[in-house]
C-alpha cells in the first residue's frame, strides 16, 4: 500500500515494523460535547484505513485515547480545560459529561459503521503512567520545573517542527497566545507536561504527583497511552490536520526524547470538513451532529458515502445539497444491489479484474472515491449475480456502507397494493396455518411451524386477539 506520510511530505510504500502486523494510534475525541460531523470525517477515514489494512492481510492493533482531562481551549497551554467548560455548561461533574459524551460518540460511530478500536483508554485512567514518563523526561534533562508546572524544553531538540516549517514569529495561535502569558517558559515553543494548582485553581480533577497536586497536559496523554499499548515503535499515527501542530509535534518531541529513538514511521492527517460558513467547531456551540442529520431524515450511511466521495487530503465542503445528492446516490445503489439475483458460480476472472481495480484505488493513499467507482463497475461488469454480490460484500467490508444489509432490508419494504411484501404475506399464511393446527390440537404441526418461522428470525406472540408476529 502507498500512503502519503505527512512527516516526509511524500507518498511512500507502507512497510510495518513487524511483518504482517500494524500498530496504529488514533487521537480520540475530547468528550465535552457531541462529536460534530467534521470530527467524524476523521474517524471514518481511520476506520477505512484500518479495514483496508486488514483487507490486505495485515493484522491491526489500534489504540485510541478518550480525552477527559487536560485539553485546553487553545490546543496549547492557554485557556480553560475543555472538560471543565463542558461540565459548567451543563451543571454536571466532569466525569458525568465524560461518560455521557463518550457513550454518545460510540453510538454515532456505530450508526456510521465505524468499528471500535482494539484499545480505548480514557486519559484519566492512565495518569500514573504519564507521571512516570514525565519523571524520566525530567531525569534526562528534557523537562524542567518552573512556577510549579513541568515544561518540556524544546531547545533540547535538533528538529522540533516535523510537519511544517514555521518561522519563529509565524506560530499558530495557541503558541503565540502563550508568549508573554506564561513567563515560566524558557522558549516560546516549550509546552506543559504537568499543570499544578498554581495555574488553574478551579480544576475539578487533580492527582497527587512529585510536583504537587495537579493534572497532565493533553499531549503527554497521547504519547503515554500509545507507548503503553502500542509499544515503543508505532507504525501509523492519525488525526485531523489541526492536530499536526502543536499536538502531534509535541507528541513526537516527548515520545522520542523518552524512548531515545524514532517513534512513529507514518503520520496521516485528514483535512477538514467545512460548511459554507467555514470551520466547524465544537467550541462555537453550533455544529452538525449525526442526530441533526437523522432528524432531517438522512441515513447516517449516506453521510458516510458523502465522505467517501472525496479524498481525505482535500478539504471537503458540507452542504445539504451535497448530502441530498449522496443520499439519492446511496438509495439508488442499494436498490440496484437489491435487484441482483444471487445465481451462477463464482467467476474468478471477473473477480480478479475488479479486485485489481479496487486495490489500485484504495492501495493508492486510500482513494475512496475510486473505490466507490469500483462498486459501480461491479454492477456494470459482464458477469453473473453471485459474483457481483460476493465482490460487493468483499469491497464493502472496507467501505462499510452496509450495502448488502440495506439491500436486504429494502427487499422487505417492497410492497404490493395491500401494503405487504410477498415475504410478509407468506409469514401471515404460516401464522394462520399454525393457528389452524392448534385449533385441531395438532401440536406437533403447530410446533413445526413455530420452529420454521423462528429459523427465519420471526417470533410469534400469542395474544387474546390471536397470534401476532415480529422480526427479532
Ligand atoms: P477533538 O474531539 O476536538 O479532540 O477532535 C477529534 C478529531 O477530529 C481530531 O482528530 C481532530 O483533528 C478532528 N477534527 C476536528 N475538526 C475537524 C473537521 N472540521 N473536519 C475533520 N476533522 C476534524
Ligand atoms: Zn492525540
Proportion of strand residues: 15-25%
Query: Strand pairing plus helix content: what structural class?
Result: alpha/beta
Stretches where pLDDT is under 50 for at least 5 consecutive residues are 168-180
Regarding quaternary structure, what we see is single chain
Bound molecules: adenosine monophosphate, zinc ion
Q: List the strand order in the largest sheet.
A: 5-4-3-10-11
Number of helices: 16
Give the overall pLDDT as a whole number. Answer: 91
How do you describe this structure in short?
With 472 residues, this protein is α/β, with parallel strands linked by helices. It has helices at 37-55, 82-90, 94-111, 127-139, 173-178, 218-230, 244-259, 290-295, 300-308, 320-338, 348-362, 368-380, 385-399, 403-413, 422-439, 443-455, and strands at 2-5, 10-13, 21-26, 59-66, 119-122, 143-146, 149-152, 191-196, 214-216, 234-240, 264-270, 273-275, 278-279, 316-317, 458-463, 466-471.
